Amino acid sequence: MRFAPVPDYHMHTPRCHHAIGSIRDYAAVAVQLGLSEIGMSDHSPMPNGFDAAWRMQDDELAGYLDELEQTRERFAGRLAIRRGLEADYHPGSEAYVADMIASHPWDYIIGSVHYIGDWGFDNPDNMEQWQGRDLDDAYCAYFETVAASARTGMFDIIGHPDLIKKFGHRPTPGSRRVAETMEAMLQAVKEAGAALEISSAGLRKPVGEVYPHGAMIARAAELKIPFAFGSDAHAPGEVGHAMDTCLAMLTACGVQEVAAFEQRRMRLLPITPL
Ligand code: ZN
Ligand code: FE
Ligand code: FE
């Protein structure tokens, strides 16, 4: 199935040390693909140099915002470019993140969990740390952390909400504990009024699946949680990746709109089959 393009709100810049291309390059691809709106969401700084190798530093925020402003002007009238961040939820850093959010004119903030405690579970350099893990425990700890991220109320979009599956690790089929923890997470997202991200990035990872999996999409749709699309592009060529696949999964669950953001206010745009 094909659909009219919706905004792609998840893309990075070289400031995070693992992406390529200028904002202008991402925007040019978006225009070529017929998108009318995108948002940049590079990995935000963290306090005390936490995880510095994978994110911009404090003193790079101004340059990021400058580049965004210049590119917004260049593409004015052709492409709306929203100002976003992918902020990590890592307990203890809330005050720092809240201050960073309050200090600049963001259109939206994606809250993502990449850490369970000090364990960077999605980092391919840490694969040995998966060995001997109880996978149900890992899933529950992950969903509990995502729920806590939603409860902070700081985030507009909850990023790639089952990232824990990235390398293909699976919980016990039918595990009630995992299902209940996921349900509590979705209830927290619902209560926070945040959108859930549907991300094509998982299709490019060992798991080979959209984030989140179909059952979570179906349950979130039932709860009327809005969805926002993100490719999680780390290169201009990934902009809009598998958007139709993601939109088809949403419409199959009865979802007819996606979330869009401006100055941290959500509006809903129709999903239009072509
Ligand atoms: Zn990244
Ligand atoms: Fe992420
Ligand atoms: Fe990302």
Can you give a write-up of this model?
With 274 residues, the chain is α/β, with parallel strands linked by helices. It contains seven helices and eight strands, in the order αβαβαβαβαβαβαββ. It has helices at 23-32, 61-74, 94-102, 135-151, 176-192, 214-222, 243-252, and strands spanning 37-43, 80-88, 108-112, 157-158, 195-199, 227-230, 257-262, 265-270. The strands form two sheets. It has a six-stranded parallel beta sheet with strand order 1-2-3-4-5-6. It has a two-stranded antiparallel ribbon with strand order 7-8. Helix 4 packs parallel to helix 5 (176-192). The mean pLDDT is 97. Bound molecules: zinc ion and fe (iii) ion (2 copies).
Q: What order do the helices and strands come in, and which of them pair?
A:
Layout: H1 23-32, E1 37-43, H2 61-74, E2 80-88, H3 94-102, E3 108-112, H4 135-151, E4 157-158, H5 176-192, E5 195-199, H6 214-222, E6 227-230, H7 243-252, E7 257-262, E8 265-270
Parallel strand pairs: 1-2, 2-3, 3-4, 4-5, 5-6
Antiparallel strand pairs: 7-8
